[in-house]
Amino acid sequence: MIDKYFLHIVVACYLAFWIALAIRPLDRGDWLLENVLIFATAAVLISTYWRFRLSNLSYALILMFLVFHTISAHYTYAKVPIGFWVKDWLHLERNHYDRAIHFSFGFLLLYPMRELLIRSARAYRNWATWLAVAALCALSSFFEIIEAVVAQIVAPDLGIAYLGTQGRHLECAKGHGAAFVGAVIVATCLSFYPHLKTK
Amino acid sequence: MPFGLSVRDNFGLSRNYYDRFAHGAFGFFLAYPIRELLLRFSGINRAWSFWLPTAIILATSGLFEIIESIVAEIVAPGQGVKWLGGQGDEWDAQNDMLSAMVGALLMTGIVSLRERKDISR
Question: Is-contact B20 B95, C-beta < 8 A?
Fold first, then answer.
């Protein structure tokens, strides 16, 4: 029963959440830009649903990541309130929400990626786990490259400042590193429990 | 690298592009062995064997860039790109990764064309 309607419930909850956060975002232009990723993900997942269905756990993890992304689309990365609370609480020098998102990219998406590699690419389980790490790192490099290319074309003079990286050159590398660490943690756990069910 | 310098002077470029060329070569020449390794040991099928080598190349160059910038921060704090020999390119890391990716995709393209020919023969 719960298994059968799991996706309906989760997707309905997400939709409600998305609509709530689509109302009066801090910056409508930025909101649209960030939502391109959400629309693209939704298009891919919906169009492949009938041909290639991932497990409920994978869909739930992907939606979880989209929830975090939706929050940052509403507030823009540098201004998410939770980030400020943590910043004041731990006396950090900046809002670390973007770092957390990068981490969750690796952490949450490793399992779905591994499932895809096992079931679609037919990779052996232990290969699939670490190939998934590589695939996620590659995706995060790829996004970074796109960002860089766009920034160089749109605003060659603005350079790093354009991406709102809060003014430090190391930002890109650190975000990238966070995704890698997230993915490696889950991959290590999965290699200790290699038989965790993948449909 | 003298060769890069003479190319720069001949074509009126702003910097020595030999490093970009080396990154491209990294992608181009390693994509083939990685693909062979994956096909023989990891069990993946042909369709995915065209994309995963590129993914691995991108992932490793991304990791290199991370290590590079951490080392740079330790050795020369605050200098960043300057110390790394970015030659004034703020997007040096990303452009390096881009050239590795293009190199790998080029090799993958050649291999897939070649294999198609072999099959139709």
Answer: yes
Q: Which residues of A48-87 are buried (b: 16+ CB within 10 A; e: fewer)?
A: eeeeeebeebbbbbbbbbbbbbbbbbbbbbeebeebbeee
Task: Provide the whole-model pTM.
Answer: 0.83
Which residue of chain A has the CA closest to B48? A121
Whether complex ipTM tops 0.90: no
CA angle at B72 for the pair B68 and B73, rounded to the nearest 5°: 120
* CA–CA dist B56, A37 (Å, integer): 23
How far apart are the CA of B23 and the nearest CA of chain A, in angstroms? 14
User: Is the pLDDT at A141 greater than 80, yes or no?
Assistant: yes
At CA A71, angle to CA B94 and CA A11, rounded to 5?
A: 110
- Name the band, by pLDDT with cuts 50, 70 and 90, for residue B37: very high
Query: For chain B, which residues lie within 8 Å of any Cβ of chain A, measuring from their own Cβ?
Result: 38, 41-45, 47-48, 52, 54-63, 65-66, 68-70, 73, 80-81, 90-91, 93-95, 97-98, 101
Q: What is the pLDDT of residues A102-117, one digit of tens each?
A: 999 999 999 999 999 9
Which of B50, B94, B96 best probes binding to A when mutated, by most A CB atoms within 10 angstroms?
Answer: B94
- Would you say A68 and A118 are in contact if contact means Cβ atoms under 8 Å apart? no
For residues B121 and B117, give the distance between their C-alpha atoms in angstroms, rounded to a whole number: 6
Euclidean distance between CA atoms A160 and B29, whole angstroms: 31
Q: Cα–Cα distances in Å, from A122 out to A27, A115, B33, B41?
A: 43, 10, 20, 12
Would you tell me how many other CB atoms lie within 10 Å of the CB of residue A187? 22
